[in-house]
Design brief:
Elements lengths: L5 H11 L4 E6 L2 E6 L2 H9 L12 H4 L7 E3 L2 E4 L10 E4 L12 H10 L7 E4 L5 H8 L5 E5 L2 H13 L5 E4 L12 E5 L2 H7 L7 E8 L9 E9 L2 E8 L2
Parallel strand pairs: 4-5, 6-7, 6-9, 7-8, 9-10
Antiparallel strand pairs: 1-2, 3-4, 10-12, 11-12
Helix pairs in contact: 4-5
């Protein structure tokens, strides 16, 4: 795989293989490998991918992909790692839904979230609920999480319970422009969906992420405030224009 396509394909692998995948250096670029059921999804999406036999113990190797990250006072990680004393811990068990906190777009969204005053929050495209749960732990309320995928909604509900926070999670399609009102909305989704759903959101503040640093969201009715970038990805903060 050519290195100039690596970030885009990594993001696709995170979606196709939330259980975890392996990355290794290869001549002329990098090699991404998925195991078990995730491999079938990758093959369906990339018919030209190749299959090789692997050694025993591959079932547990996916855990090596999932590690904790620290964003300011927040610690986001899997249940088999121990958060540091005093950290605001968001514990997410990787599995059926996209979102572990390690992807640059999620980390960037959380970085911008830390600068916002607590209030009602809407997490659009909640995945596993990382952003919604972190917001609830930071004092935002009420917190609503929506996703078009019912599995993501179920996982978000379960993770919220495990983290001891109140999050209302339900299915909703950002394209339908029928999203709940909130003081602040966080949309860690694709650039296309950001530009479709953003202008129609009933919110005074908006954080967007899920696209490359070369992209610039066009959001009529909003004023751009600041941007954060990491590893070729970007997130932006906006306020409703007056």
């Amino acid at each position: 795989m050519l290195t100039d396509r690596a970030e885009v394909l990594r993001a696709r692998f995170v979606e196709l293989a939330p259980e975890g995948f392996e990355e290794a250096e290869a001549p002329g670029g990098i090699e991404l490998a998925a195991y078990g059921p995730a491999a079938d999804r990758v093959l369906a999406a990339f018919p030209d991918a190749f299959v090789t036999a692997v050694e025993d113990g591959w079932e547990d190797r996916w855990r090596e992909f999932h590690h904790s990250v620290t964003i300011g006072p927040l610690w986001v990680g899997p249940p088999w790692e121990v958060p540091p004393v005093g950290a605001i811990a968001v514990v997410v068990d990787p599995g059926r839904a996209f979102g572990t906190g390690a992807h640059p777009s999620t980390r960037l969204a959380l970085e911008l979230l830390l600068d916002e005053e607590p209030g009602g929050l809407l997490d659009v495209g909640c995945g596993s609920g990382v952003i919604a749960i972190a917001a609830a732990k930071l004092g935002f309320a009420p917190v609503t999480a929506v996703d078009v995928d019912e599995t993501a909604v179920e996982v978000t509900r379960a993770n919220a319970v495990d983290n001891g926070v109140r999050v209302e999670a339900r299915t909703a399609d950002a394209r339908e422009r029928e999203l709940p009102a909130a003081d602040l909305a966080v949309a860690n989704i694709t650039l296309e969906l950001v530009e479709v759903a953003g202008p129609a959101m009933e919110t005074t503040r908006l954080i967007t992420a899920g696209y490359l640093a070369t992209d610039r969201p066009s959001l009529p009715g909003f004023t751009h405030l600041r941007r954060a970038e990491r590893d070729g990805w970007a997130a932006d903060a906006f306020s409703r224009s007056r």
